Amino acid sequence: MPLVNMTDMLHHAYHHGYAVGAFGVAGWDILEGVVAAAEGMRAPIILSVSKSYPGTDSIESLARAVIEMGQHATIPVAFQIEVEDNPQAAAAAISMGCDGVVFNASSHPLPDNVALTQKVVGLAATRGVLVVGQVGQLESGEANETAESAVNGSTSPPEAKHYVERTGVGCLAVSVNRINSGGNKYDFTRLSKINQAVGIPLGIHGSAGFTDDQLRRMIGFGAAKINYSSVLLDVAARRIRENALAGVEGYAATMEGVRDAVRLEVERCIRVWGGGGRAAEVLLQCRLRDTTSTNSAGDIGEAGASGAAGRVKAIFAKSTQ
User: By the 8 A CB rule, do 191 and 138 touch?
Assistant: First the structure.
C-alpha cells in the first residue's frame, strides 16, 4: 500500500481529537518495532528521519528503507524528514520522497524566518509535500499577548497567525514551557490561543518529560502530531544495556528484545494519544502518495511484505557500513 498524504492524515487527527505519533527511526529494530505496534493497534503513524539521530549522518539509504517499509504496511503511513534552517537540505529531503519536511528557522528574526520558510513551502508544493514550520516558542510570562514578540523568544498568537498566513505551512510546531521555573505547570492557555489563531494542526516537538495527562491536554488544544524520538532511542539503549550486563555475546544476542521493547512503548503512546483503531477511517479519507517517481523510492514492484523486509534490512546494513 502506498504511503498516504500527510496533510490529509494530520487534518483527520486535528478534526477528530487525537494525535499521530511521528516516531524517530534510527535503525532497523526501531523501524520494525514502530510499524509492528501500529499494525497491531490499527493506527496511523508517521516515520521520522533526521541526520541528528545517532548513526544517521547520511539518510538517503534510510529514506529508501522507510519508504519501502511504508509501502508494504497495512496501516496509513506518512514519512517526514527533519532538517534545520537550510532550504537546500529541505530540497534534498523532498527529492528523497518524503511526505513532510520539518523546517525550523525559528532562531532567525521573524522576517527572515518567514522568507526562508516561504522558499521551502514553494519547493514542497510542487511535490505535494507538507511543510511543518516553527516560529519562536511558547514560553512563560505575564506580559500582554499582543505585546510579546520574538525579542524574548516567546510566540504570541498574532505572531503565529502572521507566520502561518504568510508562509502557508500545513502544520505549526510548538513547544510548551513551564509557567514557573522548575515547576510542573505549563502554559496551556497560550497553546489554546495559538490554536484558535492559526486553525491548522499543531505539532509538539520535545515531548519527552511531559506526562500522559499533559499530552492529552495538548491534543485537546490542537496538537495533531507528536514527535517522539529520544525516548525510543533510550528504550532501545536500555534493552541493549540490559543484554550486555547479562553477559551475552554477539550482535544478535545483544540486540535481542529491542524490537519488542520499542513496540511496547509505541503501543503505549498510541493508546494515550488516541490513534488506536483509526486506520480504516484514515485510509478512506486520505489521498495516496506516489513515491515511485522519486530517486529514493526506486522500483517497488509487486513483492510481498516479507520480501520488502529483507530488502529494508539490506538497506540498513549497507547504510551503516
Answer: yes
**Residue 254, domain CATH:** 3.20.20.70
| Percent of the chain surpassing pLDDT 90 | 64
DSSP structure class, residue 147:
G
- Per the structure, the count of domains in the chain is 1
- The DSSP H or E segment spanning 82 is strand 77-83
Under the banding of pLDDT at 50, 70 and 90, the label for residue 181 is low
Query: Quick check: 33 and 260 in contact, CB under 8 A?
Result: yes
Residue pair 289/4 in contact by the 8 Å Cβ criterion: yes
pLDDT at 53: 74
User: Worst-scoring range by mean pLDDT, 3-12, 57-66, 263-272, 304-313?
Assistant: 304-313
Q: Buried (b) or exposed (e) across 28-63, using 16+ Cβ within 10 A?
A: bbbbbbbbbbbbebbbbbbbbbbeebeebeebebbb
How many CB atoms sit inside 10 A of residue 114's CB?
20
Instruction: Give the residue numbers spanning the domain of 225.
Output: 6-308
**Cα 200 to the center of its chain, rounded Å:** 16
Residue 316 lies in a domain: no
